[in-house]
Design a protein that fits this description.
This protein has 126 residues and is mostly helical. The chain contains five helices and no strands.
Length: 126
């Protein structure tokens, strides 16, 4: 697997970048929403870059997927989703959409990452 070629990691990285920029741009975001969006968005950016530079590293794939899931659930954990009034903020929607996109595309990359890892091991054993 070649470095800097996996579209899944670029999508997860873009989701993280969008989340970070959204948190900084929308002044109506609560402090907890901003913090969670910056943390999980930033972690998606970091794991995206690491996954692009070190393809075939399964633990990085799992970490990236976990950060996407955590971003997705952060509106409920940070209490910035308001289901009682259905008045979901832009921070809520950003967290949900970016989180699910990052988690789904990363989950789609699990098999290729595992195959690359096992292929590399088998190649060294021959």
């Amino acid at each position: 697997m070649k470095k800097w070629t996996r579209w899944e990691d670029y999508v997860a990285l873009a989701a993280g970048l969008f989340t970070v920029l959204a948190a900084l741009i929308w002044a109506t975001t609560t402090p907890i929403a901003m913090t969670l969006m910056l943390v999980f968005g930033g972690l998606l950016i970091v794991t995206g870059i690491l996954n692009l530079s070190m393809p075939g590293t399964p633990w990085l794939e799992y970490a990236q997927c976990a950060f996407g899931v955590l971003l997705f659930v952060s509106p409920w954990v940070g209490m910035y989703a308001s289901p009682a009034t259905l008045a979901f903020s832009s921070a809520t929607w950003t967290s949900w959409i970016a989180g699910i996109i990052a988690a789904v595309v990363t989950a789609a990359a699990f098999r290729p990452a595992m195959n690359a890892r096992h292929g590399g091991r088998m190649a060294h054993q021959h």
